[in-house]
Specification:
Layout (H helix, E strand, L loop, with lengths): L8 H9 L8 H12 L4 H11 L3 H10 L11 E6 L2 H5 L2 H12 L5 E2 L5 E6 L11 E3 L2 E3 L7 H7 L6
Parallel strand pairs: 1-3
Antiparallel strand pairs: 1-4, 2-3, 4-5
Helix pairs in contact: 1-2, 1-3, 2-3, 3-4
Length: 160
Amino acid sequence: MAEIPCSDLSMAEEILGGYPTEEPALIQILQDVHRAYNFLPCDVLERVAEALDVPLAKVFSVSTFYKAFSLEPQGDTIVKVCTGTACHIRGAGQLVEELERQLGVGPGETTEDLGFTVKTVNCVGACAMAPVVIVGDKYWGSAKPTRVKKYLAKGGDDEN
C-alpha cells in the first residue's frame, strides 16, 4: 500500500471557496476533492468538516457510504474486472490473476507508483461482451489474459 502523506490543502481551500459553507454542499465538495486528489485525504476531510461546521464523523460517514469515494490513494488509471456471473463463467478469474502478475497488486490494491488501482465489480451490464475489463473509461469486451498487457498500455487507444 502506498504511503499517505499530508495533503497540500491549497486545492481543498480552492474547492471550498466555490461552495456555500453549508452541509448540503458536502457531497459535491467531496466529489471535487476526490477528483482533485484522486482520493479523500483525512486531513482534507478534517478541513471540510471545519469549513462546513459539521462533525467529522458525519463527513467520514458520507465518505465511506458511497462506493465512488476512497480514503486510500487511487492510481491514475482504475482497472475494473467484471466478476458478474457471465464474466465469471467466461474467465474473469484468469483476467484478475494476469493483472496481479502484470501489476504486482490484487483487487482493491494500488501500485506503488500510483499508476494503477485494480478493482473487481459485480456487474457492468455488458454480459454479451463477457468477460469485460475496464481500463479508465475504455471497455474491453471478450477480454483475454493474453491481452492484459495491451489493455494496460493502450487503454482506450486501440480496438480489441
